[in-house]
Design goal:
- The strands form 3 sheets. Strands 1, 2, 3, 4, 5, 6, 7, 8, 11, 12, 14 and 17 form a 12-stranded mixed β-sheet that branches.
- This protein folds into 2 domains: 51 residues, FAH (SH3 type barrels), CATH 2.30.30.370; 196 residues, Fumarylacetoacetate hydrolase, domain 2, CATH 3.90.850.10.
- It is mostly beta strands.
- It is globular and about 55 Å long.
- It has 4 helices and 20 strands.
């Protein structure tokens, strides 16, 4: 199932997307998408609604240096345990919303990532049971102010600006995310071309590790890391991240 959050003629709602292309339909879900969704009976063509961020997480937990070649391209070692940092919920935007690049902060990079969406409140989940607490997977862009990341040491400011975590276009609940193609393009030029099978710390391990640190709530997101090939973005450009079996997340960039 593809779970989305939409703006429709009557307001905002969660929805399921059925079909593809011009025939795609959006079916409104009552209340929330966790557990067995209940449908209201309302439906619209996908072209008649606007896709929003598919979920509004209480927190976004990101994993640094989780692809060996990405760590190497910045001269870093791969951590023996997952390296965690948190992006505030105010970084989250949806597909086609603008990444706002603040003036005076130097280089800003895109980072295409697979995102895990948690489906229930959990703490201390063993890796063997991780799949049972995952609602599904979406696409994320861990936008990073690279100069601030280097100068601050701590990553909170560099990763925490408003709009620095686009996610979408929806949550795919049925995909096996262990070995998917991940590609990122800037203005149509291929920049990243990796596979989720190259994750150093795999998805079950990440769920176990993060939930051992903090309680995860429904809708919380774990960003799994980015492959090599990250680079700068400027106002007027557009970033598209495609993950096999999920879809494509596209966002324009604005200088502010």
């Amino acid at each position: 199932m593809r779970l989305a959050r939409i703006a429709h003629p009557g307001g905002v709602a969660f929805a399921s997307i059925e079909g593809d292309g011009d025939d795609a339909q959006v079916l409104e879900i009552a209340e929330h998408p966790f557990g067995q969704p209940n449908f209201t009976g309302k439906r619209w063509p996908l072209a008649d609604v606007r896709l929003l961020a598919p979920i509004l997480p209480s927190k976004v937990i990101a994993v640094g240096r989780n692809y060996a070649k990405h760590a190497a391209e910045f001269g870093n070692d791969v951590p023996s345990e997952p390296m965690l940092f948190i992006k505030p919920s105010t970084t989250v935007i949806g597909p086609n919303a603008a990444i706002r690049r603040p003036s005076g902060i130097g280089r800003v990079d895109f980072e295409g990532e697979l995102a895990i969406v948690i489906g229930q409140p959990v703490k201390n989940v063993p890796a063997a049971r991780a799949a049972s607490v995952v609602l599904g997977y979406t696409i994320a862009n861990d936008v990073s102010a690279r100069d601030l990341q280097k100068s601050d040491g701590q990553w909170g400011r560099a990763k925490g600006f408003d709009t620095f975590c686009p996610i979408g276009p929806w949550i795919e609940t049925s995909v096996d995310a262990s070995d998917l193609s991940l590609r990122a393009e800037v203005d149509g030029e291929l920049k990243q071309d990796g596979r989720t099978s190259d994750l150093v710390h795999k998805i079950p391990e990440l769920v176990e590790f993060v939930s051992g640190v903090m309680t995860l709530l429904p809708g919380d997101i774990i960003l799994t890391g980015t492959p090599e090939g990250v680079g700068p973005i400027e106002g007027g450009q557009s970033v598209s991240i495609t993950i096999e079996g999920i879809g494509t997340l596209t966002n324009p960039v604005e200088d502010v």
